């Protein structure tokens, strides 16, 4: 016999499914001392790169190595990351992750990163995102950027109307437009957007990077591009520089 039980919806809460944009850390070594050094090298000068972003730790590249989760979480928190989950670990690793307060997230699918095969440009140690949100509007900077200054357009494009001097740094999760000489560092697609581009009216950078692939001034630009209007983009995992008006 079927029995119908009378009920009512709670007045104080509802439970619904939700999607949460995350960043992912692919942990390749249990050597947390080396990890601390590399995080400092990559993000030490960009204290606002992360803004308390929820993070999933992917343990799959690690093998069966033991992880000091308490120390790892403290290290990541220092960079304004909020570790919330782990995936891909061994049974023992996941057990320790749960003890440390992380949730198990085996269903978290990562966006494919750039291939690690041969390439002309060197890969930066970037943290690839699980979800890339398209920029809704651009951050516009009207004043020249001097050496030591940094601008980061989180989740959007960056438009710079004046010169980016040597020693200055412009970063965007989307595209970077510089309507003046670009002589400092420009990092577009900072969170893995391989479709991002760098466009400038005068290409003379110290460094350009898109989605972790970068080129420095140690590799001189062709004379056909130096000081000319140009764009930088990724094609087949390689940086391509070309005139804006070929």
From TrEMBL:
Residues 13-83 form the Septum formation inhibitor MinC N-terminal domain. Gene3D superfamilies: 2.160.20.70, 3.30.70.260. It holds the Pfam family MinC_C. Keywords: Cell cycle, Cell division, Septation. The keyword S-adenosyl-L-methionine does not apply. Residues 140-241 form the Septum formation inhibitor MinC C-terminal domain. It comes from the Bacteria. One of its GO terms (biological process) is cell morphogenesis. Interacts with MinD and FtsZ. Cell division inhibitor that blocks the formation of polar Z ring septums. Rapidly oscillates between the poles of the cell to destabilize FtsZ filaments that have formed before they mature into polar Z rings. Prevents FtsZ polymerization. Belongs to the MinC family. This is Probable septum site-determining protein MinC.
């Amino acid at each position: 016999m079927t029995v119908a039980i009378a009920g009512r919806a709670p007045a104080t809460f509802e439970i619904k499914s939700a999607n949460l944009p995350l960043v992912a850390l692919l942990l390749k070594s249990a050597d947390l001392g080396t990890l601390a050094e590399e995080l400092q090298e990559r993000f030490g000068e960009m204290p606002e790169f992360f803004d308390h972003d929820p993070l999933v730790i992917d343990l799959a590249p690690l093998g069966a190595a033991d992880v000091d989760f308490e120390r790892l979480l403290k290290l990541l928190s220092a960079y304004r990351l909020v570790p919330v989950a782990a995936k891909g670990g061994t049974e023992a690793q996941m057990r320790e992750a749960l003890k440390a307060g992380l949730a198990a997230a085996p269903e978290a699918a990562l966006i494919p990163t750039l291939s690690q095969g041969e390439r002309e440009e060197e890969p930066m140690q970037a943290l690839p995102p699980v979800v890339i949100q398209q920029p809704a509007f651009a951050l516009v900077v009207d004043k020249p950027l001097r050496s030591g200054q940094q601008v980061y357009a989180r989740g959007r494009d960056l438009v710079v109307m004046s010169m980016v001097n040597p020693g200055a740094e412009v970063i965007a999760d989307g595209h970077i437009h510089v309507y003046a000489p670009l002589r400092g560092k420009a990092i577009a697609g900072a969170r893995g957007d391989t479709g991002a581009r760098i466009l400038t009216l005068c290409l003379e950078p110290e460094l350009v990077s898109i989605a972790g692939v970068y080129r420095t001034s140690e590799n001189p630009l062709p004379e056909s591009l130096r000081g000319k209007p140009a764009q930088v983009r990724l094609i087949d995992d390689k940086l391509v520089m070309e005139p804006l008006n070929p």
